[in-house]
Amino acid sequence: QVQLQQSGAELAKPGSSVKISCKASGYTFTSYAMHWIKQTTGQALEWTGYIAPGSGGTKYNEKFKGKATLTVDKSSSTAYMQLSSLTPVDTAVYYCASGSSFAYWGQGTLVTVSS
Amino acid sequence: DIQMTQSPASLSASLEEIVTITCQASQDIGNYLSWYQQKPGKSPQLLIHSATSLADGVPSRFSGSRSGTQYSLKINRLQVEDTGIYYCLQHYSAPYTFGAGTKLELK
User: Fold this and answer.
1) Do residue B98 and residue A107 have CB atoms under 8 angstroms apart?
2) Exposure string (b/e) for A61-83, b if CB count within 10 Å is 16 or more?
3) Neighbour count for residue B77 (Cβ, 10 Å)
4) Which residues of A touch B85 (CB under 8 A)?
5) Can you tell me the mean pLDDT for A77-81?
6) What whole-number distance in Å separates Cα of residue B13 and Cα of residue A114?
7) Based on the number of CB atoms within 10 Å of its own CB, is B60 exposed (0-12), middle (13-18) or buried (19 or more)?
8) B87 touches chain A (CB under 8 A)
9) Three-class SS string for A38-92?
10) In the predicted model, what is the mean pLDDT of residues A44-56?
11) pLDDT at B90 over 80
């Protein structure tokens, strides 16, 4: 079955960067775009962007340009999102999602930004 | 950006009751509308895609409909396991946008 396995929780200091991963299995990795979604404790969901694993092409939400960088490693069917220049506002759970109509979601990675 | 106005923000309903949640899109999004259910501490789960199509494994008491730019999720005969937060998502035009969510509780 399709699985998206995300990396563990991160505790980061303001100004630093984190890179979270999402390993896909159970389907052809290059068949679907990989999306990343931010969910704050207020429970709002924000789409940050997607990457097409086959071409490496990306589309970002303007709000996250310069904040998020999406990459993939096709050899390991893993997608990555790097978040840079972290501030407390970046504290959230980040999900990867793939499949038609975002059918498949990872379990989420909590990123906490605190000094 | 396309705005998705979801209502109500919260809802308390009884077992077996019929529940309806709506999302109003700020412009035409065709059928590029999905509905998700999220339980505490879990990731969202797809219920309805393409505005009206039931996702695999989802009980048939869930249904989706569209009238112009208004989209609705209907739950027939509410069950205990249907509590949670429901979100709509438009993936017609980037940036893709979610509704603010509807928290559904049992009365």
Assistant:
1) no
2) beebeebbbbebeeeebbbbbeb
3) 12
4) 43
5) 98
6) 39
7) exposed
8) yes
9) EECCCCCEEEEEEECCCCCCEEECHHHCCCEEEEEEHHHCEEEEEECCCCHHHCE
10) 97
11) yes
Six-digit token string for B73: 């999720």
Q: Rounded to an integer, what is the distance from CA A3 to the centroid of its chain? A: 15
Residue range B21-38: average pLDDT? 98
Q: Does A45 touch chain B (CB under 8 A)?
A: yes
Q: What is the pLDDT of residue A41?
A: 83
Question: What band does A77 get if pLDDT is binned at 50, 70 and 90?
Answer: very high
* Percent of chain A clearing pLDDT 90 (strictly above): 97
pLDDT at A42: 75
Nearest C-alpha in A relative to B32 = A101
Say whether residue A27 is in contact with chain B using an 8 A CB cutoff. no
Nearest chain A alpha carbon to B58:
A103
What tokens does A4 get?
């998206």
CA distance B83 to chain A (A): 15
